[in-house]
Write a structure and sequence with these properties.
350 residues, 60s Ribosomal Protein L30, Chain: A, alpha+beta, elongated
C-alpha cells in the first residue's frame, strides 16, 4: 500500500515538472495567449494539489504503519529480523492491521447503535459499555416496589418506550438481549418475601423474568399490552448482590445497585475489548460518589467506637483442617469396637 502510494507520488511529481518545463518553453518560443497561460497554470495548480494530497495520504499511512509496528514491538515482536522470521513478522503485522480495521468497523457499529438508543437517555436511562457489552440500565426502584416483582405503572411506561425504540429499528430488533436483575446487599428480612423469593438471587431473577415477559408480550393485546419483541432473542438472569456498580456503604450506592439491565449480547465478531467506548465520565461519577459514602460510613463507625460503642468484630472464618492433620487425627482416634458376633449354633447333622 505504501509502495504504491510512493510510486504515485513520484509519478505525479514528474508529470508536474514536465508540464512546468513545457510551459516555460512555450512561453519562450511562441508567446502564448493569456488563455493558454491560464490553462497551463490551472493544470499545474491541479497537479500540485494532487501531489500535496498524495503526500498527506503517504504520511498518514506511514504514521499508521509505524504505530502498529511500535505496538507489535511492545508485544515482543522484533521487526529487524531477517529471513523466514522476518516473513513471519510481516505476516503478523498484516494480521494485526486487519484486526485494527475490524476493530474500527465494530466501534463505528456500536457508536451507531448507541446513537439509536440515545432517545432512551431522555427517560433517565443510562446507556453504557460494560464487560464488553452494551447495557441499558433501568432503575429498579422505578420498576418495582420494595420486595416486589410486579411492575409499577411507571415501570410499564418506561419499558413500553424501550420496546418501541427496539421494535421500530430493524437492526436493533434483530439483536440478541439478556434481561439481568440486580439487588443491593441488604438481606431479605420479611418472612413473606423470604417465603416467596428465598434470597436476593431469587428476587433479582424473578424481577428479570417479569421484565422479560412484559417485553415479549404482544403489543396488540387490548387487556394487557406488552413490548411485542421476538421471544426467541430474549433471555433472563438474576445476579442478586454479586455484581454491584457502586458501593453499598450508603443510600446512593444501594439505589444504583438496585437495577434491571437490558444487555445487548455481542456477536462473535464483536467479542473484543470495547473499553474505549465506555462512558467513563458517568462511571467515574458513580465511583466517586460511592467512595464518598464509604468514607462517611467509616467516619461514623469510628465516631461510634470513640463514644464507647465499638464496631462488632468480624467473625473469623473457621480454620480449614489440612489433609495431614485430618489423617493424624484419624490415626489417633480409638478404633471403634465391632459388636461381638453371636456364637455359631451346633450343626444338628454332626
Amino acid at each position: 500500500m505504501m509502495a504504491r502510494t510512493l510510486h504515485r507520488t513520484r509519478l505525479v511529481h514528474r508529470t508536474a515538472l514536465g508540464l512546468l518545463a513545457g510551459f516555460s518553453l512555450s512561453l519562450a518560443s511562441c508567446g502564448p495567449s493569456k488563455a493558454d497561460y491560464q490553462a497551463q497554470l490551472d493544470k499545474y495548480n491541479k497537479l500540485a494539489k494532487e501531489h500535496e494530497a498524495t503526500e498527506d495520504e503517504l504520511a498518514k499511512e506511514k504514521a499508521r504503519a509505524e504505530k502498529l509496528e511500535a505496538e507489535l514491538e511492545a508485544m515482543g515482536y522484533k521487526l529487524n529480523a531477517t529471513g523466514a522470521e522476518n516473513d513471519k513478522l510481516l505476516k503478523a503485522l498484516d494480521e494485526y492491521k486487519e484486526r485494527a480495521d475490524a476493530l474500527e468497523r465494530i466501534k463505528k457499529r456500536f457508536e451507531k447503535l448507541r446513537k439509536k438508543l440515545e432517545e432512551l437517555t431522555k427517560l433517565g436511562l443510562k446507556i453504557s459499555i460494560r464487560k464488553n457489552r452494551m447495557v441499558i440500565s433501568l432503575p429498579g426502584d422505578v420498576l418495582f416496589a420494595s420486595g416486589k416483582d410486579e411492575l409499577q405503572a411507571k415501570g410499564k411506561e418506561i419499558l413500553a418506550k424501550v420496546a418501541q425504540v427496539v421494535r421500530d429499528d430493524n437492526e436493533l430488533a434483530k439483536r440478541t438481549y439478556q434481561v439481568a436483575g440486580h439487588t443491593d446487599n441488604e438481606k431479605i428480612t420479611s418472612a413473606v418475601v423470604l417465603k416467596q423469593f428465598k434470597d436476593n438471587w431469587g428476587l433479582s431473577l424473578m424481577r428479570a423474568r417479569t421484565v422479560l415477559l412484559y417485553l415479549i408480550a404482544p403489543s396488540s393485546d387490548p387487556k394487557s399490552p406488552g413490548g411485542g419483541l421476538d421471544p426467541s432473542l430474549w433471555s433472563a438472569s438474576g445476579y442478586g448482590e454479586t455484581d454491584p456498580i457502586a458501593s453499598n456503604a450508603g443510600k446512593y450506592g444501594k439505589e444504583k445497585n438496585r437495577r434491571v439491565e437490558l444487555i445487548m449480547m455481542p456477536n462473535v465478531e464483536e467479542m473484543l475489548d470495547l473499553k474505549s467506548l465506555a462512558d467513563e465520565g458517568t462511571e467515574k461519577e458513580i465511583d466517586e460518589e460511592s467512595q464518598k459514602e464509604a468514607t462517611r460510613a467509616e467516619v461514623l463507625a469510628d465516631a461510634k467506637e470513640a463514644e464507647g460503642s465499638p464496631k462488632p468484630a468480624a467473625a473469623k472464618p473457621a480454620a480449614a483442617t489440612k489433609p495431614a492433620e485430618k489423617e493424624a487425627a484419624k490415626k489417633a482416634a480409638p478404633a471403634k469396637e465391632e459388636p461381638a458376633k453371636p456364637a455359631a449354633k451346633p450343626d444338628p447333622k454332626k
